[in-house]
Structure formats: structure tokens, C-alpha cells
Amino acid sequence: MHKQTIKTSTIHYDVIVGEGLLTDIAQFLPKNYENVLIVSDDVVEKLYAEKLANNLSHIKNVNMTSVPAGEGSKSIDKYFELLTEAINHKLDRKSLIIALGGGMVGDLAGFVAATYMRGIDFIQVPTTILAHDSSVGGKVAINHPKGKNLIGNFYPPVAVIYDVTTLRSLPASEIRSGYAEVVKHGLISEESFFNEVLKVDLTKPLDPDVTVEQLQKGIAVKANIVEKDERESNIRKFLNFGHTLGHAIESEMGYGQITHGEAVAIGMLFALKVSQENYNISLPYNELYQWLAANNYPLMINWPGPDMLIDKMKLDKKSENAIVQMVLLEEVGKPSIVNIDDHNLRIQLENFIRELGSL
Amino acid sequence: MHKQTIKTSTIHYDVIVGEGLLTDIAQFLPKNYENVLIVSDDVVEKLYAEKLANNLSHIKNVNMTSVPAGEGSKSIDKYFELLTEAINHKLDRKSLIIALGGGMVGDLAGFVAATYMRGIDFIQVPTTILAHDSSVGGKVAINHPKGKNLIGNFYPPVAVIYDVTTLRSLPASEIRSGYAEVVKHGLISEESFFNEVLKVDLTKPLDPDVTVEQLQKGIAVKANIVEKDERESNIRKFLNFGHTLGHAIESEMGYGQITHGEAVAIGMLFALKVSQENYNISLPYNELYQWLAANNYPLMINWPGPDMLIDKMKLDKKSENAIVQMVLLEEVGKPSIVNIDDHNLRIQLENFIRELGSL
């Protein structure tokens, strides 16, 4: 069991990573609560919600609810439904929402907690690799049909309790999705971490010790950046490496057609390509490409038109004044933020799509 | 032109009160903006939006939108529509939303600003007396069918620019609604302020100098409390004087059937009554009753059942663990927070309704 404390301007909270925490969760609650709502998705609920609730039997009111699994539930409708459930279960300002699930559940239930009665406590209990990323940093959001995470808040949880035994139930595409963010944390922090990650073979059962170690490192990279820049005015944008195109692909293909991390993986390849071009340097593009291909990441996708993608990239929250901003690498471990004009972006994107398609 | 600076944990912002500020607003913007969305209601838009926009002609993109006047627009649907408009007008993280209107517009547009791309700048330009209250303190929210302001954030504006000449267009019910909050600020701060307010005759045209002075005092009372307690854990609850029953009446009668302040006026009478009973003291119940009656406040209302009201009072955000909390007065200017058990509450509410009905 490992503990890191994340410091934000408003609160400090612990991220606890370990095996079997789900059946031992009561001891990690930072306060006494009388009314708890566990929010999950319908897949995770069946696997773990009962187990979690049993461990909270000392609490007066513990209720469970779930939304359909998948990004489609990060909608204004599900958001409103969960608020209604919170009211029906009589949650008040001292109540707690537990987000049990992956990034979708964390984002959705977190935004409900952030806005219910102007903000009540919530705890993240991640059940995916991807959630090592999304559960740290205090971003909560839902999607708008015109763009991902366009509606949300900065709202930190009061704790993150990460039971890695839940990762065993993940399908292969979710393992790929989560590991893309681990790769990202390597690329923006240090080459040795990146190289370690590329040694992992995702087609075989994960070695728990390696997974825990790499998740912790990933969390540390993210926490370090988030602590220095809570509201994404500056270095926090580095975490967006691979996400500008990644989000556009995800949004244009339709959520559910490709996982978040798989789209980000393609976005990272593109960001490496643009970086090489922009700085006239060599980066481990081929190494990453080979690893992604060997691990069955979808790289030959049904590409949306470049114009649609560029429009979406402009809609990205991180873009300013309708110019696309990308995170590039000056070298591995040294990210920087660069404005890319439309003309240049279009040429590079077309070349990239052509090259990727023909490989 | 008078300026007060409100200090919150995250930002300091100015509240500027004066005559004719609407045509001189550019000089009060705290930053340069390239993209501004003015959000108003359909009544206020016709009166003032053009005037305001003309004064911002130096800004590249200025767009206007409005929702139907009335509390009914503080809905999840209008909220989502405005978010969509913000996207369509390509607002980014450096853009500005101006809330031009009363409390409804401020709450709704403020919540849009708070959650659009996880928070962009917004400025309140209040056009009602009531908004002297709602525009200060950083509370933004929309309503849920099951309760008022149940969905929202604490999110301060970057400025409040209050042009009192806009108050001339207010209907009588809106003047009553706003003045109820001025009365409240008197009752929870000091007797002399309260007594001054009771000298005002709302059935005659308001004296601008008196109005400006009393609005400023009201703002100062609120600002003083809000600065000490931003997130309503403690003394900020004092501002809820009259609101526990007031919100329940408003919600049970249906928004639009009675104005916010008119409902709060009845709630203040009830709170004075309960205070007298609870502390065995004498308070200016009759003085307030006479003033409200003389100024045409609706006091003989079509009362919802006590059970319905008590249920709503429990739903109030300020209640904790399903016990109704009320703000009482130990004396004028000395509020305190008291838990009232259901049985006692029911008896006092029934007596109050009977007495008010028969007067």
C-alpha cells in the first residue's frame, strides 16, 4: 500500500494505491459520513459495488446507482439524472459521493459532486488503468455533442483509493487505453521511464508489481505538474500531449468507436512527428509506433476528414482565440506549447494520415 | 460612482455602483477580451443590451443572447442551450460572459461561465434591486424541479458593474422583491439600518440617492460576511435569514407565482416569530408586518400544506442530515443558527399560517 499526498490550493488529499483496498475502504475515509451515494457504471457495479458497500455497513445510509458503461454516459442527461438521485436519496452538504469506476464515472460523478448544492465531498475509487490519470488533478466534466469535457469544473476529490486488483477484470482495449497515458507520462517526464514502459507486453497478463510501480510513477508525474499549476494556465497543458488530435479523433469518430487512450496514442505519434519537423530533431517515433503496433493499438483507423479534425482541434478547451495549440517535445522529457497555424497543421496532418495509412 | 472591493480566497473583484455606468462600461473591464457573450433575459435585452454592446464596439467579437424572463429559465435546458451558444460563438478560455439582468440571469449565466471549459471570466451587470444581493458572493446556480439553486458552484465574477439608472424600468413586484433583501441586510446587521429601510415608501417613485445609499449598505453587509466565510460553512448562513421558509414557499407555489423577495418577506416574518418564541424576546415583528402590508407585499397567499413545506425546508441546501436549520435573531443585528425539530416546526408553522391568514 503506497500513499502520495496531492496538494491543491484548497485541499490536500491522499492517493492510496494497493491491492485489496476495496474490502478495506472504511479506514481510508477522511471523515465520518452519514449518507453516501456510490456511483458506478453497470459493468463495474456488478463486479465491485456490493463489495464496496458491504465495507461501509457502519454508515447509516449507503445507496448505489449506476449509468451505462461507456463515454456516452458523460452526457447532460445522465448528469441531471444523477443529481435527481442525489436529491431523492436526501444527500446534504455533509454527504459523500463515491465514484467507483473508470474515468467516465470519475468525471461524471465528480461533476455531480462539484455542483450538487454547490459542492459536496467525493472520493474516487478507480477501477481502470486510465483512471490513474483522470483521478488525479481535480478535473471533472461531462461532454457536449460538440466536444469532449467542454462542461466541467476543477474540483478535487477528498481521496483517491486505488485497488489495483480491480484491474484484472479489464478488457484488452481498456488496458491499451490506460497504458497510452502511462506512455505519455513517460514521454513528458524522462526517457528512462518511457523506455521502461516500452518493455511492457500488453498482450500478456500484466505483472502486478510492474503495473503498480508504473502507475505510481505516472501518478507522481501528473501530481507534480498539477500541484504547480492547478488551473491549466501554464505547464499543466503539458499533460495534454497527444490529446489535441486525440480528442478530435475521439469526438469525430464518435465516442465508443475508439477508446480515449487509443485515440491519444495516435495523437502522440502525430505530436512526435510535428515535433521532429518543428525542431528538426529525431524523437522515438518509430520505437513508439512499433510498440503500439505490437500491442494491437488501432493505427489504421477510418480517418475523419482533415477539415473536420482541425475544426475540432480548434474547439479544444486548450486552444485560445481559435488557433490550435499543440504540446510538442523539444526532447523526451522536455515538452513545450506551440501555436500551429491552420495551413501548416493541415499539411502535416495530411502527410501523417497518408504515412500512417500506408505503413 | 462608488467602488467596493470584495476579497475572496481566489480573486479580488470590484463592485462598482453608480448612475449611467452602462454607457461607460468599457473602462471598468479588468482585462482585454477578444470574445464576449452578453447573456440577458428577453425583457432586459430589449432595454439595455444594444446600449451595452455599443459601448464594447472596440472588442472583436461581441454577441448577445437571451432567455425568457423569469425563474423558469434557471433550468437545465436553458443552461445547456447557453453552453451550446458559447460553443457556437467560439468562446475560449480567455473569453468573457457578461450577465446583464437580474438575479436569474446572474445565476444562470454565472453557472454557464463557471462550468464552460471548467470556468471562464464573467461580469455581473445587475439591472434589479434584488441583484444587489445575488451579484455579490459568488454563488451561481440553476434550479432543480425538486428545489431552488440545488445545482451550482461558488464562482465569483471578475467585476460587478451596477448601473442604478436601470432600476427605473423595474415593475413594482420586482422593487418589493429586491427591497426584501435590503430589509434582511438591515435585520441581520444593525437596527438603525433596518429602521432607515422601513422609512422607504415603495409605492412612490424611489429617491435615487436613498436607493443608492441603501444598496451600498446592503452590499457592504453581504460582502463583509462573504469575505469571512466564502463557502457557507458558518456565518454565511446568516444571509439565509428568511430563506428557509421563503425558498419552500417559492418552490411549492411554483416559480413565477410569487417573487423571490416576496417569499423571503413572509419567511422573515416567520423567522422573527420563531425567534421571539425561541428566545422569549420581543422583535419588530409588527413593524415589519405593517411595512410589508403598506407596501403591498402579498401576505395572504394560497398556502401549500405544512407537510409539503417542511419537506422542502429539509431539502434546503443549508439543512444538514435532514434536520431543518433556521437563522433566528437573538436581537436585531445578532443572528444565530438553530436546528428546529419537525414537531416544533410544524406547530409554529401552523400557528403562523393561521395568524397571517386571519390578519
From TrEMBL, chains A, B:
<feature type="binding site">
    <location>
        <position position="243"/>
    </location>
    <ligand>
        <name>Zn(2+)</name>
    </ligand>
</feature>
<feature type="domain" description="3-dehydroquinate synthase C-terminal">
    <location>
        <begin position="178"/>
        <end position="319"/>
    </location>
</feature>
<keyword id="KW-0472">Membrane</keyword>
<keyword id="KW-0812">Transmembrane</keyword>
<dbReference type="InterPro" id="IPR050071">
    <property type="entry name" value="Dehydroquinate_synthase"/>
</dbReference>
<feature type="transmembrane region" description="Helical">
    <location>
        <begin position="96"/>
        <end position="117"/>
    </location>
</feature>
<dbReference type="GO" id="GO:0005737">
    <property type="term" value="C:cytoplasm"/>
</dbReference>
<keyword id="KW-0057">Aromatic amino acid biosynthesis</keyword>
<keyword id="KW-0862">Zinc</keyword>
<feature type="binding site">
    <location>
        <position position="260"/>
    </location>
    <ligand>
        <name>Zn(2+)</name>
    </ligand>
</feature>
<comment type="similarity">
    <text>Belongs to the sugar phosphate cyclases superfamily. Dehydroquinate synthase family.</text>
</comment>
<protein>
    <recommendedName>
        <fullName>3-dehydroquinate synthase</fullName>
        <ecNumber>4.2.3.4</ecNumber>
    </recommendedName>
</protein>
<keyword id="KW-0456">Lyase</keyword>
<keyword id="KW-0479">Metal-binding</keyword>
<dbReference type="GO" id="GO:0000166">
    <property type="term" value="F:nucleotide binding"/>
</dbReference>
<dbReference type="InterPro" id="IPR016037">
    <property type="entry name" value="DHQ_synth_AroB"/>
</dbReference>
<keyword id="KW-0547">Nucleotide-binding</keyword>
<keyword id="KW-1133">Transmembrane helix</keyword>
<feature type="binding site">
    <location>
        <position position="181"/>
    </location>
    <ligand>
        <name>Zn(2+)</name>
    </ligand>
</feature>
<feature type="binding site">
    <location>
        <position position="148"/>
    </location>
    <ligand>
        <name>NAD(+)</name>
    </ligand>
</feature>
<comment type="function">
    <text>Catalyzes the conversion of 3-deoxy-D-arabino-heptulosonate 7-phosphate (DAHP) to dehydroquinate (DHQ).</text>
</comment>
<dbReference type="GO" id="GO:0046872">
    <property type="term" value="F:metal ion binding"/>
</dbReference>
<dbReference type="GO" id="GO:0003856">
    <property type="term" value="F:3-dehydroquinate synthase activity"/>
</dbReference>
<keyword id="KW-0963">Cytoplasm</keyword>
<dbReference type="InterPro" id="IPR030963">
    <property type="entry name" value="DHQ_synth_fam"/>
</dbReference>
<dbReference type="GO" id="GO:0009073">
    <property type="term" value="P:aromatic amino acid family biosynthetic process"/>
</dbReference>
<keyword id="KW-0028">Amino-acid biosynthesis</keyword>
<feature type="domain" description="3-dehydroquinate synthase N-terminal">
    <location>
        <begin position="66"/>
        <end position="176"/>
    </location>
</feature>
<dbReference type="InterPro" id="IPR030960">
    <property type="entry name" value="DHQS/DOIS_N"/>
</dbReference>
<dbReference type="GO" id="GO:0009423">
    <property type="term" value="P:chorismate biosynthetic process"/>
</dbReference>
<keyword id="KW-0520">NAD</keyword>
<dbReference type="Pfam" id="PF01761">
    <property type="entry name" value="DHQ_synthase"/>
</dbReference>
<feature type="binding site">
    <location>
        <position position="139"/>
    </location>
    <ligand>
        <name>NAD(+)</name>
    </ligand>
</feature>
<dbReference type="GO" id="GO:0008652">
    <property type="term" value="P:amino acid biosynthetic process"/>
</dbReference>
<keyword id="KW-0170">Cobalt</keyword>
<comment type="pathway">
    <text>Metabolic intermediate biosynthesis; chorismate biosynthesis; chorismate from D-erythrose 4-phosphate and phosphoenolpyruvate: step 2/7.</text>
</comment>
<feature type="binding site">
    <location>
        <begin position="127"/>
        <end position="128"/>
    </location>
    <ligand>
        <name>NAD(+)</name>
    </ligand>
</feature>
<dbReference type="Pfam" id="PF24621">
    <property type="entry name" value="DHQS_C"/>
</dbReference>
<dbReference type="InterPro" id="IPR056179">
    <property type="entry name" value="DHQS_C"/>
</dbReference>
